[in-house]
Amino acid sequence: MGELLKIDGVVKNFRIGGMLRGKKMTAVDQVSLSIQADKPVILSIVGESGCGKSTLCKMILRIHNPDGGHIILDGKDYADKKGFDKMTFMKEVQPIFQNPYESFSARKAVDTYLYSTAKSLAGAKNQAEAEAKADEALKSVGMSLEVVKGKYSAQFSGGELQRISIARALITRPKLIIADEPVAAIDASMKMNIVNLFKDLRDKFGISFIYITHDLSTAYYVSDYIATLYRGTLIEYGPAKSIMDDPAHPYTQLLMDAVPKVGDKWKEQDAIVMPDFEDREFAIDYCKFAPRCPYATDTCIKGRPQCIDLNGERKVWCFHDLITTKKVPEKESV
Length: 334
Ligand SMILES: Nc1ncnc2c1ncn2[C@@H]1O[C@H](COP(=O)(O)OP(=O)(O)OP(=O)(O)O)[C@@H](O)[C@H]1O
Ligand SMILES: [Mg+2]
Hints:
Layout: E1 3-16, E2 23-36, E3 42-46, H1 53-60, E4 68-73, E5 76-77, H2 86-92, E6 93-96, H3 100-103, H4 110-121, H5 127-140, H6 145-148, H7 158-170, E7 176-180, H8 188-205, E8 208-213, H9 216-222, E9 225-230, E10 233-239, H10 240-245, H11 250-257, H12 278-283, E11 307-309, E12 315-317, H13 322-325
Parallel strand pairs: 3-8, 3-9, 6-7, 7-8
Antiparallel strand pairs: 1-2, 1-4, 4-5, 9-10, 10-12, 11-12
Adenosine-5'-triphosphate binds next to strand 1 and helix 1.
């Protein structure tokens, strides 16, 4: 069946500090990931603040153009601008954003957003058809048009409003939903409710999700696959359960050691507080984690680690095959 989405060696550079004196930083550095077409999944992309999660999302959503590599959706390469049909793309790929109060204007009833999506992207020919589509989508997220009609965003809780924005996305019958920190602004008690909905929609409608988060507990709960990013590079990828239960990369191990509770964020945990050499770390051309890695050896500063394929599905970018050998390398002087 092939791939629904193939991200192949994607790169995004930004200039920081002005055009003349600024320097280049690589926010996403040769990331490759894919989602199969025949098996809908929830792929979580996790990593601490600034590791490139949103930049990667924006490239998938065609908000940013990659500076290198390829993104291929349904066999169509984003680089092929002539073959790009915006309407088809917007139907197939829908975004969900972090703060639902920013997705809906405070001065416009929220149901009007659903009708306009139904008319512009889902073929509703009149108001009655638009309302029928809106109601159907709202029912898939546990709400209904009866409850939502004529109300404004302020009349809903963050969790309810996020469900409405998910309903809006569903109207186009997308194949892929890109959700960038969709529960970060939601009350802790409602986070699980939203991520549970992703699972339901995956199973009911065959929608794949890319779920961006630094909330490890929801990632663990909801994901089929997890990709960990560190400073723009992919460092570990594989089935969620095996990554969470038996992390292979020293960085993932460090993260998993701090047992997550609902709502915990990595950056709040002492063990992984970022040192202030961030720019330099983005620029290094060997293993980006080496400066902080307890196992770093001379090998680690000689080049980028190759991908180690642990069992076909599981990949780790590290010079030390920690999970299969369970052997901690001798520390050499770095
Ligand atoms: N438009 C831009 N111009 C310059 N630098 C940018 C731009 N967008 C992102 N960056 C930089 O790229 C890096 C990655 O940013 P990105 O927003 O992708 O991180 P993130 O993983 O989404 O972080 P967070 O968890 O805080 O949302 C950061 O160092 C950021 O400052
Ligand atoms: Mg972000």
